Each structure stands twice: as C-alpha cells, then as structure tokens.
Amino acid sequence: MPSEPDIAANLAAIRARIAEACARAGRATDSVTLVAVSKTHPQEAVVAALAAGQTVFGENRVQEAAGKFPDLRGAHPAMRLHIIGGLQTNKARDAVRIADVIESIDRPKLAAAIAEAMKKEGRRPDCFVQVNTGDETQKSGVPRAEADAFIRAAREEYGLPVTGLMCIPPLDQDPRPHFALLRELAARHGLRELSMGMSADFEAAIAEGATLVRVGTAIFGHRPAPA
Ligand SMILES: *Cc1c(COP(=O)(O)O)cnc(C)c1O
C-alpha cells in the first residue's frame, strides 16, 4: 500500500481533478461524491484516507468489508460504506447490516433477499440498480432491455429504497455512450444518483452527469492480481 502521505496526496489530486471536471461541465463541485474504493487494501489504508478527510468508501466483497469497517464507525460516525460488487443472496443480510448504500442490485432474487434482510435487520440502506450497459455476458448488472422493468419491480414489488443507478462500461469501448445511457435511464425513473466513472474515466463520467465516482487505484495504488 502507498504510504499515508501518498494516500493523502492522491486524494487531494483526485479531488482537484473532480473540481476541474465539475467546472468544465458547469456543475457545482459538491454535486459529485468521491467513493474511495479500498478493496484488497488493508484497514490501515482506510484509516489513512479517513485521516485525510475522506468519508465515503467502496468495497466489492461483503466479507472483506465486514472485517475492515464496523470497528471504525465509533470513531468516525460520518463514514459511509458502499457495497459496489456483485452480491450473492446469502450475503444479503451481512450487506444490509454493514452498508449505507448497496450499489449492485441486479436481479429479482437478490432484490427479494435484500428486502427480506431489511425487515430482519430493521435497517434500510439506499439501493442502486446496477445496469450492464454493454450487455456483457460475464458482467453483473441487469441487461439493458430489462432495466426499466427491473427498476420498477425493485421499487414497487420489493419495496426497496432505490435512489440511483450504477454501471461499469466495457473496458474496450468509449465509456461516454454508456454513461449517457445510464443518465437517460435514471431521468426516466426520477432517480437522482448516478454512480459511474472509475480511475480511468471519472472525468468523462462527470461530464455525463455522474453524482458519485468510484476511484480505487488512483488513490490506493495497484491491487494485487487475483490468485
Ligand atoms: C474496483 C472497482 C472500482 C475502482 O476501480 P479503479 O479502476 O481501481 O479506480 C470501481 N467500481 C467497481 C464496481 C469496482 O469493482
């Protein structure tokens, strides 16, 4: 992991780039929330980011997040945890227990499991629907053609507090049409939050209306390759 001063400097650089991208788009700087993606990095990296004023974090695995975040809450009541990775239904209860936002709702079985977990836990984290804007077979997210119906079902049938959408465009394509598609879909459903843009493309996402950008590598350095 980068040293604590490096994490602080990286955060400052990303915040400056977000402010510039907002200015170019004629948007207020505070209209974009930086989600610092700390997956695979140790708790010390999160602590260093908290010390540098970062409050919103993203993790893609519930179990890993459960090991890092709950014991930081007492000292950092403003901290917010977003679950951003594909979720198995048997992790729904843990996700509802520890998350402030679950960004990866993408199928009826998961929506049902999250709704059930909310009843049991007495907690209602905000939910985003993840859309597979490139219709890639290996990627999580609801397929484009099913997105409208699924967003309606998540809200009306399962009663989830859906406040936004999330996407991860295909790596090998211009991300902007994907960001634009997500924005149009959100507008159709009156959803205010758009989680789109990562280290490589967050400025383009801000130009297309992102309200949250999920940045990992540019803050915490490269992740070890998966085994
Ligand atoms: C890992 C991850 C990110 C961060 O990606 P970087 O390229 O490291 O900034 C963003 N969103 C999701 C869903 C991720 O899994």
Ligand list: pyridoxal-5'-phosphate
**Estimated helix fraction:** 40-55%
- The class by helix and strand makeup works out as alpha/beta
The description of the largest β-sheet is: 9 strands, parallel
Would you list the SSEs in sequence order as H and E?
A: HEHEHEHEHEEHEHEHEH
Number of strands: 9
Q: Kindly report how far apart the N and C termini lie.
A: 18 Å
- Dominant shape: globular
Looking at CATH, the homologous superfamily is Alanine racemase
- Any idea of the CATH topology? TIM Barrel
How much strand?
15-25%
Overall mean pLDDT: 96
- Tally of discrete structural domains: 1
In the CATH hierarchy, what is the class? Alpha Beta
Poorly predicted runs are: none
Oligomeric assembly: single chain
CATH architecture: Alpha-Beta Barrel
Helical element count?
9
Keywords: Pyridoxal phosphate
Cofactor: pyridoxal 5'-phosphate
Family: Belongs to the pyridoxal phosphate-binding protein YggS/PROSC family.
Function: Pyridoxal 5'-phosphate (PLP)-binding protein, which is involved in PLP homeostasis.
